[in-house]
Structure formats: C-alpha cells, structure tokens
Amino acid sequence: DTAVSQTPKYLVTQMGNDKSIKCEQNLGHDTMYWYKQDSKKFLKIMFSYNNKELIINETVPNRFSPKSPDKAHLNLHINSLELGDSAVYFCASSLPRGGGIREQYFGPGTRLTVT
Amino acid sequence: AQKITQTQPGMFVQEKEAVTLDCTYDTSDPSYGLFWYKQPSSGEMIFLIYQGSYDQQNATEGRYSLNFQKARKSANLVISASQLGDSAMYFCAMRVSGGYQKVTFGTGTKLQVIP
Hints:
The complex is a heterodimer.
Chain A: E1 4-7, E2 10-13, E3 19-25, E4 31-37, E5 43-50, E6 53-57, E7 64-70, E8 73-78, E9 87-94, E10 105-106, E11 110-114
Chain B: E1 3-5, E2 10-14, E3 19-21, E4 24-26, E5 32-39, E6 46-52, E7 60-61, E8 64-69, E9 74-79, E10 88-96, E11 103-105, E12 109-114
Parallel strand pairs in B: 2-12
Antiparallel strand pairs in B: 1-4, 3-9, 5-6, 5-10, 7-8, 8-9, 10-11, 10-12
C-alpha cells in the first residue's frame, strides 16, 4: 500500500501554462507539506497544511496555490509556469505529536520540466 | 533562525566499513528535533532516524546511529557495515518547536560505497 502518493510522476509543459500536482496520503496524518527540490538537490519547504488549514506559507510566488480539500489530500496548482519552476516537487505528511513531529513521510516526487 | 550545515558534499567508503556523515545545526530553541533522510538515485526520500533534543540516548535504527553531541550542536549519522545499496544522497534536517512543524534541510552529502 502506498503511504504518500503523487500524480503525475513526470510533468513536461511549456512556459506560461497552468498545471496541477495532486497528493494523497493514507497514513491518517494531520499535516501535509509541499517541498521543492532544485537542480542542486536543495530541499525547501513551500507550504504546510494542518487539518485543511494553511500553517506554513514560505516566500513562494503567488503563482503557486496549494489547496487541501480534506486532511488526506493536498494539491498544488501553478499558474503561468516559468523556466525556474523546473524542479522536483515532493509532498510529505506527518502526525503532530506533543513536542513536535518525529518523522515525515515523503511521496515519490513529481519532476516538473518547463520548456 | 535555524540553520543546518553539512560540510561534506561527497564521500567515499569501502564496502563493509563504517562511515560518519557530518551535520551541525544552529538554533536558540531548547526544544528541537533532528532527522536524517536518504535519497537514492531513484529519487525518493526515505526517513532514516530521528533524535529529539531532550532524548537522553543517541538514536539507533539498525545499521544507522545518530551521534548527538548537544554542546557541540552536532548530529552526525553513522552507518555501520556499509553496503552498495547505501550509495545515495543523505540529508540532515531540523525541526524547532515553535515553527509549526517546519523542517529545514541541509544541502546533503553524496555517499558512494566502493566494492
């Protein structure tokens, strides 16, 4: 059983297009995240939702809009794609505990290529 | 602000030997957690081990152990009896208590195991 799944795995599109990435987790976790991993493998958090509420919103362009219809799903919509958006986008989830999370589980990633 | 530093961009280790991957961190928060993740060439992020700042003992998970030296603010990962399948990127990460479960990642160390 896949714990955290993402679709699509690969996404190739042209500049200016709008695209979405979907994420689902079946772990019963309350918190979900979007991370961006650039070409140098640097991983940076973009957004986090806890029980459908946005709790982390890093300095990300407004063209990126996350949506969490329920606590098991977190989607990422990107408008007007730019070359610099090319990266691997990871979804992750965790279960908040007293004192803070002790693990995060990642999806397989979505490799976005903007041409 | 919290910061994670991994100073070794790449390392080699002979198969069956032990290897230490360095990680130092900086935070003024007394409550924090430290993580290590493995990213093989296939791209997925695999959670390896966690150490809480108040945990009395160093964390161990199979062949992985975390050498936690609080006064030196270091959280090195030790892999014993290296295997070819250990060849991957390894990321150190930190979560502080007041950060809405925000996890900050280091730049990673690429480990190559030589037969």
